[in-house]
Design a protein that fits this description.
Blueprint (H helix, E strand, L loop, with lengths): L2 H17 L15 E3 L3 E7 L5 E6 L7 E3 L5 E7 L7 E6 L3 E17 L1 H4 L2 H12 L9 H13 L3 E8 L16 E4 L1 H4 L4 H14 L3 E7 L11 H5 L2 H9 L12 H7 L9 E5 L14 H16 L5 E4 L15 H15 L3 E4 L15 H16 L11 E8 L2 E7 L5 E2 L8 E4 L5 E3 L1 E5 L2 E5 L8 E4 L9 E2 L9 E2 L7
Length: 494
């Protein structure tokens, strides 16, 4: 029996056994220690016997909303949450009563993606052991990383930071049940939780002094299409054609929508403040959709927002440089995907992206620096979502270009203080003319623009930047954060 069928059988058995005695049944997302979104109308849902009346008794309010359960055995009751953090209890009454204790009211974020989101402190120990015992050739300073993670674990005592990790399950159709439970952040629980999520949530909790609940729903080696509702992809002419030809040799599940069905859909409509997303490596490669990634990511976000019923903020990570093809230093499929991630900003309203070319490891697809990633994401949230910070956690992003004689002038957003991080000449610019052959170019900062030229290209038409898988360019903004990969052309990639 596969995972999906086993999961469905267990859920059905639990449902039948409890309904036989008239129990109200709540999804696992409602448990002791949970965090509910503050100052919001949240939904409490579950199952009960048909025509049973279910009533909510929240500890933060005198309201007692109720609902007569329909013949389908489902209920969904809305109730408003306060600004005060609690802790509170919530009793759900039908023929029986369920009381949920130690509930905090704060900010709830969903953390999703593939392995660089799933990456935990425990992973650091596992990778370190693999290196020490010769099972891995990953290049990182083992002693330094172990010392860092041990310091972080020792300090990971945050009673107002809570975690929920969704169990890894696939399903061919949208599900209602899921595995997991809320836990309080301690050194023991933090060790198993997403490090990007932890550093993100810790920063929010410390900066705003509010409880933070983090829901981690991620799975290593998974392409974006498994997280996207399958009907949306199949109904899109371009994405539908892509699904027919895509390379199926992924590390993890690869059928369209199977993780959306089992690991995202069961969370809906649990109220969230927004999503942080760290994924993309598994879409690198022509038949895994690197040229369609912006369209696919926008489709995924549109599907999630539609299912939740509101447009929550979506903050995401551009993939770092990595040597995907060891035999070809000019390989550019990861650069193409990074550019697609940049372009997705124009397709996804209320979205922001961080660039990570300065904190990657070209020899390791799992770079160790999750602190910078989590804190940059948190800075976007503090800036754009909560309006409590003026800091921009992103380097220059390509805005446009113009031809000036034998050169191209490139303009950027977030261009204040353009500089070369190492004080050396700018690297990783290329230009091409009518023949579409790109040549390395000289790039000079001119105010908030960059002037690019090459003696090999007398009449330039297009410019590319950081256009290899392993590019670690030195162009950055005044904050020292790196510029994103880009290309100005839409010529077919060879």
């Amino acid at each position: 029996m596969n995972n999906t069928r086993l999961f469905a059988a267990l859920c059905a058995a639990a449902l039948i056994s409890t309904q036989a005695i008239g129990n109200v049944i709540l999804p696992a997302i409602f448990s002791d220690h949970m965090v509910l979104q503050r100052n919001a109308e949240v939904t409490i849902w579950g199952h009960a016997l048909p025509y049973e009346t279910v009533t909510l008794e929240p500890g933060w309010s005198d309201a007692r909303p109720s609902q007569l359960v329909g013949r389908d055995g489902k209920f969904a009751i809305k109730i408003k949450t306060p600004d005060n953090k609690g802790p509170y209890s919530l009793t759900v009454k039908g023929w029986n009563s369920i009381t949920i204790s130690d509930i905090l009211i704060g900010e709830v974020w969903l953390c999703s993606g593939q392995s660089n989101m799933a990456f935990s402190a425990q992973w650091v120990y596992n990778f370190a052991n693999d290196v020490k015992e010769g099972r891995s050739k990953a290049t990182f300073d083992v002693d330094k990383e172990l010392a860092f993670i041990e310091r972080e674990l020792a300090a990971a005592d945050h009673p107002e930071l809570r975690f929920f990790t969704v169990g890894s399950v696939t399903a061919d159709t949208p599900q209602q049940a899921l595995y997991g439970e809320w836990v309080v952040c301690t050194p023991e629980t933090m060790k198993q939780f997403s490090l990007v999520g932890y550093f993100f949530g810790r920063r929010l909790q410390e900066e705003m002094d509010v409880p933070v609940g983090l829901i981690n729903s991620s799975w290593g080696g998974t392409p974006a299409d498994v997280w996207t509702p399958a009907p949306l992809m199949q109904g899109d002419r371009v994405l539908g054609e892509f699904l027919k030809i895509r390379d199926k040799e992924t590390w993890g599940p690869n059928a369209p929508g199977v993780l959306y069905n089992a690991m995202i859909h069961p969370l809906i409509p649990f109220r969230i403040a927004g999503v942080i997303w760290n994924q993309g490596e598994e879409n690198v490669g022509a038949n895994r959709g690197d040229e369609l990634y912006a369209r696919m990511l926008a489709t995924m976000v549109r599907g999630w927002r539609s299912a939740w019923g509101y447009d929550f903020p979506f903050l995401y990570v551009q993939i770092p440089p990595y040597r995907y093809d060891a035999g070809n230093l000019a390989a550019f499929r990861a650069a193409q995907l990074r550019d697609q991630q940049r372009r997705a900003l124009d397709l996804i309203p209320d979205s922001e992206m961080i660039v990570t070319s300065d904190v990657g490891n070209i020899e390791d697809i799992h770079p160790m620096d999750k602190l910078s990633v989590g804190e940059r994401l948190a800075t976007w949230a503090l800036n754009r979502v909560y309006n409590v910070s003026d800091e921009i956690p992103c380097g220059p992003l390509y805005e446009g270009m113009s031809v000036e004689g034998g050169a191209i002038r490139v303009s950027f957003i977030y261009a204040d203080g353009l500089q070369a991080l190492d004080g050396k000449p700018l690297t990783d610019f290329q230009i091409a003319g009518e023949d579409r052959v790109f040549h390395p170019a000289t790039a000079i900062i001119d105010g908030e623009t960059v002037l690019v030229s090459s003696p090999e290209v007398k009449q330039p038409l297009a410019v590319r930047f950081a256009w290899t898988d392993i590019a670690t360019p030195n162009l950055c903004g005044g904050s020292g954060l790196p510029a994103s990969s880009f290309r100005s052309d839409d010529w077919p990639l060879q």
